[in-house]
Structure formats: C-alpha cells, structure tokens
Amino acid sequence: MDTLKVNVNGQPREVLGAQPHTTLLNWLRDQGLTGAKEGCAEGECGACAVLVARPDGDHVSGPGGTRWESVNACLLLLPAVNGQSIVTAEGLGTPGALHPVQRELAQRGGSQCGYCTPGFVVSMAAEYYRPGRKEGQHHAPNGFDIHALSGNLCRCTGYRPIQDAAHALGTPAEGDPFARQRQEPAPPARPLHLHTPQGEFHRPASLPEALELLARHPDAKVLAGGTDWGVEVNLRHARAGVTVAVDALPELRELHWTREFVEIGAGLNLSEIERRLDGRVPLLAQWFPQFASRLIRNSATLGGNLGTASPIGDSPPVLLALDASLVLASAEGDRVVPLADYFTGYRQTVLRPGELIRAVRIPLPLAPVTAFYKVAKRRFDDISSVAVGIAMELEAGVVKQVRLGLGGVAATPIRALETEAALLGQPWTQDTVQRAARVMGGEGTPLGDHRASAAYRAAMLAQLLLKFYAEHSAAGAREEVAG
Amino acid sequence: MTSLHERPPVGAVGAATVHESAPGHVTGSALYTDDLGVRLQGLLHAWPVNSPHAHARVTQLDPSPALEVPGVVRVLTAADVPGVNDAGVKGDEPLFPTEVMYHGHAVCWVLAESVEAARLGAGAVQTEYEPLPSLVTIQEAIAAGSFQGAQSTLRRGDVTLGFAQAAHIFEGEFDIGGQEHFYLETNAALAHLDESGQVFIQSSTQHPSETQEIAAHVLGLSSSEVTVQCLRMGGGFGGKEMQPHGYAAIAALGATLTGRPVRLRLNRTQDITMTGKRHPFHATWKVGFDADGQLLALQATLTSDGGWSLDLSEPVMARALCHIDNAYFIPHVEVHGRIARTNKTSQTAFRGFGGPQGMLVIEDILGRCAPRLGLDAHELRRRNFYQPGEATPYGQPVRHAERLEDLWTQLLARSDFSARQQEVRAFNAQHEHVKRGLSITPVKFGISFNFTAYNQAGALVHVYKDGSVLINHGGTEMGQGLHTKMIQVAATTLGVPPERVRLAPTRTDKVPNTSATAASSGADLNGGAIKDACEQIKARLAAVAAGALSAAGKAHVSSLGVHPNDVRFENGQVYPLGRPDLSMTFEQVVHDAYYLRTQLWAAGFYRTPGLHWNREAMQGHPFKYFAYGASVSEVEVDGFTGASRLKRVDILHDVGDSLSPLIDLGQVEGGFVQGAGWLTLEELRWDESGGPNRGRLLTQAASTYKLPSFSEMPEIFNVALLERATETGVVYGSKAVGEPPLMLAISVREALREACAAFGPAAREQTLSSPATPEAVYWALNRARKGAQEKDAQEPAPADD
Q: Which GO molecular function annotations are given, in alphabetical order (chain B) (predicted)?
C-alpha cells in the first residue's frame, strides 16, 4: 500500500491511516490547522479555501513553474492531493509577521467576525501571486480580478473593505518565498493506490491503467475534479467502494486544435481551459465567468460536469450550441458521441460501464454570433433556473444556421429543435423572433421548484431569445442591456 | 467626575481603530468554539436524529441498534435528563420531544468517537412516528386560528375619525419573507467537566448567562455549578441569542454522563434546518391621507410566523408594532399584532428584531400609494416626517426628530438626487428593455431592549501592579467590534494607551447575570459598565496621585497641593490640571497605590435610566433614544429577466459621536448589504405540498439559499456618518449601530419598485413581492407593462419541489 504524503505550509507530512473519503479540510483541522473553516461543506462559501501549488503551463511544453491556485479544501478528498503542496492562511503569515494580503485586509476593516477571513486571505493570495497580473487588468489599478473572490462569502462586511484591500495590493517583494517558488516546478498529484477497510482510492498513472481499473471495477466512482462528488460525500454522505481519480491523466489534459475541431481534455479544469483557449472560443469566453466561482473552476472539469449529467449543469447548453461531441474512451478504444445524443434521461447517459469521457470536441469553424444567458437569483456563483446557449450564423439577413442549447427546463439538457426550425431560413427580424420566442416558450417541460416557478422558466425561454435579438440586431444592439 | 457622554480632549475613543482580533482573523489564529475541540483528549462528537415529519407523535424510540455501531458511546434521550427537559425559558421547547413539531426536529442525540460514527449511529436509532396534521404557512395558521403568546394592539387616537377625515383611503395586503442568519460559523458547543466536577461549556452564544441557566436547569444544577464561555462568534445577527442553549445543554449533558468532553457542531444543513430565522410576516392594512398626502390614519393587522414555539416572538412583534411608524407621524393608529403557530423552526431574533418588518409595511404602503396621490415617493415621505415635539403612537416623544429633516436634506445634496432623478427619467425614456429606479428612504430605530430588565450590564476591570489593564464585560463578540470599542472606552477612561488594555473572554464566572448581546445595545450597556468600573479605579488612583503630586508640587513650586478632582489621566501620564510638566506615569501611580493598599480592581455596573414600558397597553418610554439614517439607491432592471444591478448607494447615518469610526462604517455597510440580501435575494422556501416532505425547508444549503456575494455589492458605495451628533446620556456620546443600518436597504426595494413602474404608464400603483428576487421583479414589471391591471398578471403560486 502506498503512503500518502502532503506538504503543508512547507512541511512534508505523512498521512497515517488515511481513509478514502476524508476531505483535505477535515484532515487539516484534525492536524490543528483550524484556520480553514467549514462554512457550507459544498464549495459555496470559500471559508475552507487553501492554496495548492500547481504546475504552470501545459505539460507539453515541460514542467514549467508553479502557480498558486485557491481551491475548496472541503471538496478535495485528501488522497486526491497526494504528493502536492498546500498552503493555508496560517502558512502565509502570523500575527507578528503578516503577509501583505493579511495586512491590507486587517488594516482596512476587511474582517469583522473573522470566520470567512482565512478563506478570503487565501483567494486573495492566489490572485496576488497570479502570473502576469499587471496594472489596468480587470479595471483595477493593480490588475486584481475581484471575481477571483466570487466563491468567498462574507456575511458581515458587505465586501467594500475587502475589495479596497484587494485593490491596494502591490506586487510581491523581492525575496517573497511564495513568489520565488513560482519559478520552481510544482509537485504534481502523485499516483496512489490506497486500500482501506472503508474502500479504495486510486490515482492511476496512465489512461490504460485507468481503463484497466474501470474494467475491473465497473461501478467505481470516477473523480475528475470532484466538486460535485465532494458535495455528495459531505452532504449526502455518499461513499464509493472504489474511487478512481482521472483528472491528472496526461491523456485527459490535452488541448489541441485541428482544422476540423478543437479538442479539450476532460481532465483540464475550467480555469486551465479558459487560459489555454484565451478567448478563441468566444461563447466559452463569455461563459467561463458565469460557471460557479474561481475556487470551483480551479478544480472542476468538463469531464466532471458532463459525467454527472445534471440537467442544470452549466456546460451542456453552451456545448450543445457549439455542436460539441464527446470522445469516450474504454479498454475497447475510443468512440465519438455527439453531445446531443449523450443524455438519455435524468442523470442518465450513453456512457457504458468501464468507459470515461476523454475529451470534448468542438467543431470548427465556429458560428459567428453566439451568446450565453443564465437566469439565476444571484448574478454570479449560482445554479441556473434556466440557461441558454445560442450559436447562429446569418447570411444576407437570413438565419442560415442556429443551435439553441437549453438547461434547466427538462430532465436533461436539450436542444430547442422546434425553435431552431422556426428560425432557420427566416429573415432575422423582430417578427421572426417574436414568432420563434412563442415556440421557445413551449420548449421542454419546465418544473417549478425553490429556484423558480415553472411559469417563470417558460417565460425566460421566450424572453432570452428576445434578449438575444435585442443585443444582436441592428436596432437592439444600441441598447445597453442590464444583467 | 464627568457625565457619561463627555469625552476628554485626548483618548482612544473616536479613533479609527482596527478590530482587536484582526491579526488573528487574517492568519487563522483567532479561535472559534469548534476550533477548540481538537485540543482536547477523548473528545466525543454529537449527531442528532431528526424528524422526517412536520408534526408527529413519536411512537417508538429505540436507541439500542445505534449502540451496535462501532464507535458509538451513548445515545442521549429524555430519560437521561436529571433536571428540566426544556431548552427554552418559556417551558414550550422540550429538549427531547415526544411530539415533533417541525421537519428536522431532533428527537435524540448520538455520541460517538467520530462524527462519522455518530452519524451512522443516528441512522441506526429505531424511530416510529404517528403523523399529525400540520400547519406550514401563515395562511394555514390564520385559517386554523393557530396562534401563540400574547396578542397586542398599538393604539392612538381614533382611526374611525381619521378615516372620516381622509381624502384618500387605500387598502392592501403584504407578505414579507423571512431570512436565514447564515452566520458563517454554525452553532457549536463544547462541554467538559473540570477537576472539581464543575461544568464548563464553550458555546457560540450571544447570551452566555441564558445558556448557563438553561444548561443548569437541564442538568438539575445551580447556575454556580455551570460556567459558559464564548471566545468569539463567527457571526450571530440575533441567531445565537436564544437558539444555542439547547445545543449547549446537549453537550453538557453528554459530558456529565460520559465524563468526556463533548463537541456538538451543526453542519450547515442541520443549522438551517433546525434553527430559527427572521419571522416571515403577513400584513393587511388600510391607510388614510389628507388631500396633501399627510398621513391621517393607519389600521393594520400584522401576523408573524412564529414557528413551533414562542421563543422571542412576543418581543419581536412588540418591536414590529413600535416601528410601523418608522419616521412618520400618524395621528390615528390601530395596529394589531399576533403570532401564528406553525410547524416550522421557531423563528427568533434577527438584526432589527421585528423592526424591519414593521418599517417595511409602512414603506411599502408609501411606495405603493405615492403615485395614486400624485406625489413623488420621496416627497410623500418627507411630508410625513416627525416634527420636534411629536410623539410616537406608543407615547414616547421623538427625541431629535429634527435630525430626520437634516439627514434627508444633506443626503439629497450629497447624492445629487434631483439631477440624477432627471437622468434616470431620460435614460428610461430612451431604453425600452432596461429601466432604472432611484429612491430615498429614512430610518428611525429605537434603541434599548423592549424588555426593560435587560437594559443593565456588568464589567470587571483589573489594574495589575505593573499598570497593565485587563477588562471583562458581559457582552459577546460576534464581529461587531464590541471588544474593540470596550478597549477604547477603558483606555480613554483610565487615560492609558489602548495597547495597555487587554480583554479577557466573556465568561459567566467573571461577570454574572448578563443580558444578551443584542438590540444593538452591546456598546451602550457594557461601555457604561466598563466606564463605571474604570471611574472607580481612577478615583482611587486620583487620591493617591493627588498626594504624590502635592508632595512633588510643594517641592517644586510650593503650591497648596492638588485636589483629587483636578488630577488628569492622559496617554499613560497622570498630572495636576494645568501642570503636565509635573506628570507621573500611570505605572508609578499604580505602583504607589498598591503599596498604600488601594483596591486596584472594580466591578462596574450600568442600567439605562428613564425607561418604562407597559406591555399590555403598548405604551411607555421603551427606548433610550432613536438612531436615524437615510439612504439613496439606484438600480437598473433588465426587462427580459427581472435581473437587477445596484448601481449606486449613498448613505448618511447617525451613530452619535462614533466610538470607533472604522468599526461603525463596517456595521453600516454590512448591515445595508445584509438588508439588501433579505429584500432582493434571500428566499426561504418550504415544502407546502401535501406530499411526504411537507414542511421540509427546501432552501437548507448554501447552494439553494443565496446570500449577497461580491456581485451584489453596490457598484458605487458612499457611506458617511452624521457629524456633530453627540447623544447625551450614552457612553462618550455615541449611538448604537448594529441593527439600524439593515433597514437602510429598504431604499433598494423602493428603487426596484420605481424601475418596475417605469416599464408601464406613469402614476400607477406598483406592487412588488418581498423578497424582490429577479422572478418577483419580472412579474412586477410585467404588471406595469400590462397597465397595472393586476388580475391580468400571471403570477404563479409558490411551487413544489
């Protein structure tokens, strides 16, 4: 049996008696590092945030340096960070020697009850050390992206002093140990085979090994980021006999372009995809900031989001609009399945036992006019009541091609096929859109729940098409639209 | 001796001091109740068995299968209670119930070596229930006549006469949603026995003395045998005023029965499922105005949803009734208050304590009626402000009523209100799909506990031989900066630098019989007590110093000596009035005093003077003073979705002479954003169906109950404190600040109403549900688009899961 080792605040620690479902947070707290807190146990509040040292850049161009990324320790299973380096708020500074982030936050009244504060410190530190942060970015004097804090909740301050602290941060001083560490390679997540009476945890080293494991354990839980599975473990006390972590497999971490498509590895987290696409898929660029929070995007993968097959997952509406396909890998080889055929029922897919999602393919060329709309109570980091992805091509004022991906209005994500038919070949006018919006309002079978009523969901389908028109017609484009 | 409000020319109060625990907060070294458990040997963990029914009789409870689960040590049931099986003070909250009253009600608790084992043990406890009929909504409770506690009526004048004189009479109905506290730290308690058998409980509680009393009565012990300590809380907001007691009692019971330390920490789902919230309210009202828009009469019935037990519902309703006037003089008033009993969590204190709900009723009335009176809402509000000399419907003169007009005028100017109103109108005329709204609303909030006896506090101040100072007081720290202010008060009174003052954790064995840290009164009451203790010590030191300084003075200038009243304490120096050149250090005076056998510590006490309250008649002088404020909000609403942005907020708020401006600014901003969350985002939804999950809270997690995040912060946020606002009769001229700013957020809701109305024809009444979520705003603006013909609007009933 492998030993599980984690480096915490610069100290290597060997974990004895590790269990497959212990979270990093609970283990840290049992070690007496109680700075990270459990506020919600589902990756919503960020009180548990810790820094993890991750390789900067893609593995193709060599190991590169280290990138400090903030993650939710409550969602990370301890075995999943085997071999990695973690830094907590305690590791950044002490009351007698505050880290610059800690000093700014303390001096500006950024803490009241203080319970969320270590998590804010960590998320701010990650942004403080973000490679390439420079003045003027993100409308901030120091380039600080305030949305890096969107996964941290504070119930006391109202956020203004926290924002002021973030915007007051300078650049790391000469000799700053964390800045210096950015030049050194980050220890990767190491392969692990953990066998315990409570279950097994495997991090295989290669895709063939992973597929072999899955063939042997067809009911194994496939872990690719774990931001959904962590919630199941914490809140619904789900336990798996065998867990297989696939997010670090090199074969699942590629992103490459061909003439026909761009292929995105299912094990890349959303922040990595965002950086590596760098705006070249505009619909995804518009979508990333609306997917959960930075803390979640630093762990969550496309493979995971599609693997859970939630009807309110945020990726299907955009990927359906982009006409994406999934590359499914198994011991028998790869097969390619259009995303539109992938979902078969509520949280049901064509995925066979022993099969996993290796990559997502988006065909090229991309449709020229695209949009993503998410209706939710809160503007950021909320689960959608309705989500719509739209990709359209006009030719001489006529709709030549259109795909509408919908989430939240049926047992699975769906294409709005009748609405597409109502638009196709029609002139792109108010009349056409009004007619199509009425069709759109009847798509799917929206239900009422605690997020929204059925009537509102149906209304939103129609309204979002009208909104799209308002933003993408000669007349409507002039109007600034809130949201 | 100076009066309570007077400040020395030099001192720590009034300085923009950083929170005393800030370095601990940012480094993770500040400890909370649940951080202490890992430091104890042999710790046991507690997990509840929760009812799956909204209302049922427990017909079987067999803990024996749980004991088979590895790691389970004990199951606590009613049979284990040596004292009183009740978690409250009114005898209506059995700690181990035989009849479960809400979905999630705990019937027993399992203790085990690990959280996992305790949870598995709880799953193994055999329970059977006989479901009983349940009432889940206020409307169901009203229809069934299910009420609890006292019903009260606030009355002045004769509403019949008022309506007879009215040129305009309007009627309406209004539902106000509740609010989950969502303190980031959930309820937690940790109990163990010390070597003498004394029960020591660490609890995340706003009311340690009551936690102590209840733990003692459950254990059948006297209060002197139980000590409760609270280091700090990760937020309270009222949610830890009454609710922590039962959990502390469970931990204490477990510790006494097993002899081992017991930790009880609710996870987020348990906390939201099991603990009380802000009361939802239902209001029916009838209002009369004269031809100029002057309020003449208000008749209303407020029904709060108290949940399954009484808890603090009566005083919450009293405060709601005492705030239905907000800033407005209404000659004829008749408002009834009643508390519905439903099968829900027992609703409790939450920042504002009924005040927000009462104020929201009148502000909703004014917002709705202004267009029908042909007035701008802000003009209608201003016309009705209290004038100096007028009294509230409960008979209390409105002290400093002129501040309303003053704040209002200043804020209109600061926020550039009329120019921006023109801009908003121009913007709305040019934009079909997006509209803006701009609104200003006032706050007048009464300070003091309605329950007069609570308006007292104690403190214990030690001066050690080396001149260092340790203070204890009865208030608890939940992030509001009370401890910071208390250090400032002590340092100012003793004339020492704040660094010389340390603050010891709140403990019931240091300061007994404390009141809850609630009602915004923490600094007023405990500050008064600390100042009293420090004054006593200072008087004794002054006598010592007068002697020493007289001797020194004679040697130098052959004066007649120094009278103790003329000794000044400033910046750690002690000197005769007018002769700083003769100063001694504070340390030297303390040293001398010790050798002269002078008592260097003192117990301080404060009781708020001048209060009286007749609860039955709803008349008297319940408040020491009023806190005032006003806010201007501008919103932008997307007509397609109802989504909105808070573009700009301007606030002017009255905290008297601020004890600690950085702390007070934080309270104003934080309270405002929390209020905006309540009014625009946060939505509690229960399963109201007849299905198997009836009564279950559907929004019991952070993923379903959304708090304001960065994106809800106003894009421009200007907050100022009213200047030269000394409040005489309060410690160093300050005012309470915890609750009043929450209600400044009403301007956001009123701005949303204005924006919705802009989608339709002018001068129509615009209704808006509360909370004004994007969906609610969408339906509201749809009503506006349809010409305010409400019956045509398609507003669905709350849906099932």
A: 2 iron, 2 sulfur cluster binding; iron ion binding; molybdenum ion binding; xanthine dehydrogenase activity
List chain A domain ranges. 4-181, 251-366, 369-483
Average per-residue pLDDT for chain B:
96
Taking residues A464-470, what's their average pLDDT? Answer: 97
CATH T-level topology, domain B22-30+456-607: Aldehyde Oxidoreductase; domain 4 (3.30.365)
Q: How far is B162 from chain A (nearest CA, A)?
A: 42
Contact criterion met (CB < 8 Å) for A482 and B636:
yes
Q: Answer yes or no: is pLDDT of A138 > 80.
A: yes
Give CA torsion, residues B401, B402, B406, B411, to 10 deg.
Answer: 20
pLDDT at B200 over 70: yes
| Helix or strand (DSSP H, E) at A347 | none
Prediction ipTM score: 0.96
Smallest CA-to-CA distance from B749 within B680, B654, B653 is with B680
Of residues B663, B669, B685, nearest to A450 (C-beta): B685
Mutation to test the B interface, candidates A26, A115, A121, most B Cβ within 10 Å: A115
| Residue range(s) in chain B whose domain bears CATH number 3.90.1170.50 | 33-133+181-274
**Tally of CB atoms within 10 A around B183:** 25
| Domain at A4-181, CATH homologous superfamily | Beta-grasp domain (3.10.20.30)
What is A251-366's CATH number, 3.20.20.60, 3.20.20.70, 1.10.10.60, 3.30.465.10?
Answer: 3.30.465.10
Supply the residues of B annotated as catalytic: 739
The CATH code of domain B281-450+615-792 reads 3.30.365.10
Q: How far apart are CA B101 and CA B346, in angstroms?
A: 10
Of B357, B278, B281, nearest to B312 by C-alpha is B278
What letter does residue A94 receive in the DSSP assignment?
B
The residue of B476, B478, B636, B641 whose CB has the most chain A CBs within 10 angstroms, and thus the best one to mutate to test that interface, is B641
Contact A153 B707 (CB under 8 A): yes
Interface size A-B, in CB pairs within 8 Å, comes to: 287
pTM: 0.96
- Report the alpha-carbon distance of residue A72 to residue A50 in Å, rounded: 7
Q: Which of B27, B182, B773 sits opposite A377 (nearest CB)?
A: B773
CB-side exposure of B333: number of CA atoms within 13 Å?
Answer: 26
Q: Quickly state the pLDDT bin for A416 (edges 50, 70, 90).
A: very high
Amino acid at A9: N
pLDDT of B434:
98
State mean pLDDT over A69-84.
Answer: 97
> Predicted confidence band at B555 (pLDDT cuts at 50, 70, 90)?
low
Rounded CA separation A414/A317 (Å):
8
| For testing contact with chain A, the best of B18, B20, B21, B26 (most A CBs within 10 A) | B26
If you average pLDDT over residues B709-714, what whole number do you get? Answer: 92
Taking the CA of residue B552 and the nearest CA in chain A, the distance in Å comes to 41
Of the listed ranges A48-52, A345-349, B436-440, the one predicted with least confidence:
A345-349
pLDDT at residue A313 in the model: 84
What is the distance between the alpha carbons of residues A376 and A384, in angstroms, rounded to a whole number? Answer: 5
Indicate where chain B has its CATH 3.30.365.10 domain(s).
22-30+456-607, 281-450+615-792
pLDDT value, residue A235: 95
pLDDT at A62: 55
Name the superfamily (CATH) of residues A369-483: CO dehydrogenase flavoprotein, C-terminal domain (3.30.390.50)
Percent of chain B with pLDDT over 90: 94
Best CATH choice for the domain B33-133+181-274 from the list 3.90.1170.50, 3.40.50.2000, 1.20.58.480, 3.30.70.270: 3.90.1170.50
Our CA-based measurement puts residue A335 at a distance from the nearest CA of chain B, in whole angstroms, of 35
Question: Is B703 close to A44, i.e. CB distance below 8 A?
Answer: yes
Positive or negative: CA dihedral A298, A91, A166, B180: positive
Instruction: Using the predicted structure, report yes or no on whether residue A379 has a pLDDT greater than 90.
Output: no
